[in-house]
Design goal:
By secondary structure, this protein is of the alpha+beta class. The protein has a single domain (4-136), classed as Gcn5-related N-acetyltransferase (GNAT) (Aminopeptidase), CATH 3.40.630. It has 5 helices and 10 strands. An 8-stranded mixed β-sheet has the order 3-4-5-6-7-8-10-9, sandwiched between helices.
Length: 178
């Protein structure tokens, strides 16, 4: 029997066999999230936020932790050995486009390349489908090769390219329920 929390499995197994704890992000995670962003390398912060970002502002933190689990969902993954959070993926409803949600993912530097983003993206897609959303959209810097590769492997297709920004989209179907 798979035990769940708000529709999410409590654990996800990476391709190397490592098992991570998974749960919805909540307002109580505010300080953890602020510290996690500070621990990211300057390059990772730049690739995630498309600008230099040494820390999150109070307003940014408010937005990131005030998740309603419908139009704004966020999933946290933690190392079960240390309890330390290592990644967050999220979606936010795109204004004026019913059913379309913008996604974002952040993985701690020392966990990148192990399939964390891919595993959490699958969970995020499932949550979006459960909440009635029909498409996932991602906006990434053209230089963010790892994120682009992850999106392509996950079935996203390019939809727009303008300067240093690339947009990808994936339609959610009933096959995503598997």
């Amino acid at each position: 029997m798979n035990i769940t929390c708000n529709g999410l499995p409590r654990h996800v197994t990476l391709r190397d066999g490592c098992v991570l704890d998974v749960r919805p992000l909540e307002p109580a995670d505010r300080e953890w999230l602020a510290a996690a962003v500070r621990r990211l390398s300057p390059e990772t912060r730049y690739l995630r936020f498309a600008s230099p970002k040494p820390h999150l502002t109070k307003r940014e933190l408010d937005f990131l932790v005030e998740v309603d689990h419908h139009t704004h969902e966020a999933i946290l993954a933690a190392d079960p050995t240390s309890g330390r959070g290592i990644a967050v993926v999220r979606y936010v409803q795109v204004p004026g486009e019913p059913g379309v949600v913008e996604i974002a993912a952040t993985v701690a530097d020392d966990w990148q390349g192990r399939g964390v983003g891919t595993a959490l993206l699958a969970q995020l897609a499932q949550r979006a489908r459960e909440e009635g959303h029909s498409a996932l959209r991602a906006t990434v810097l053209a230089t963010n090769r790892r994120s682009i590769a992850m999106l392509l492997r996950a079935g996203f297709a390019p939809i727009k390219s303008q300067g240093t920004i690339r947009e990808y989209q994936r339609l959610l179907t009933s096959a995503d329920a598997d």
